[in-house]
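Quick illustration, no need to memorize.
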Amino acid sequence: MTLTEKVLAIKKFLEKTPIFQNILDEQLQAVANIAIPQTYKKSETIFWEGDEATGFFIIKSGRIKVFKIGNSGKEQILHIFGADEYFAEVPAFDGGNFPASAAAMENSEVVFIPRTAFLIVLQQHPTLGVAMLSTFARHLRQLTHLVDSLSFQEVPERLSNYLLKLSNRNGNIHIVELDLPKGQLAALLGTVPETLSRAFYKLSQEGKIEINGTKIKLLNFQENSEKLSPEV
């Protein structure tokens, strides 16, 4: 594949991503010209908290977790990003270091947008920056939702909400299959595997779920869906 063909392929990918929706073709071309395809193997670290933020990332395939490690060594997953989603855009703009770490949860392909080159593109196409403001708002809402969940919800409620959202993402099905190992799910919900297991047991005893390995049947589905915390 020639360089021109590679840039064209990147441009076609970028134009369907939420972060670059509804921008002019010349702006999209300018971003594609500086984009760098990268691949990461499962469990490979993309960057560590405190590293210099040299740019931001858009996921082409796979899943990436953004996380922090506490002094005790406990991991807290802040968010899991999938195909067409983007992460690390804030430090890429403000020039600070990465405030959290990121690692591939499975073999993943990303498109890296280097900070210095991107700032030059923004100077040439200032309306591009305005168009991207909504991306900052979306991630701020996600972080606010995480803080609310960790501060005001007990682990069983966090787990219940997660299962309902997993159902919603898959077409409101009544039987869902866990998409994360329990250790990683515990880290996402701000707890430890032992407490997560007790939360599964509690929901089961309350007649809210039935457990069959990694498959979870949601009971009283309509009633529980009405209590679901809104997506942000």
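The first strand starts at residue 36 and ends at 40.
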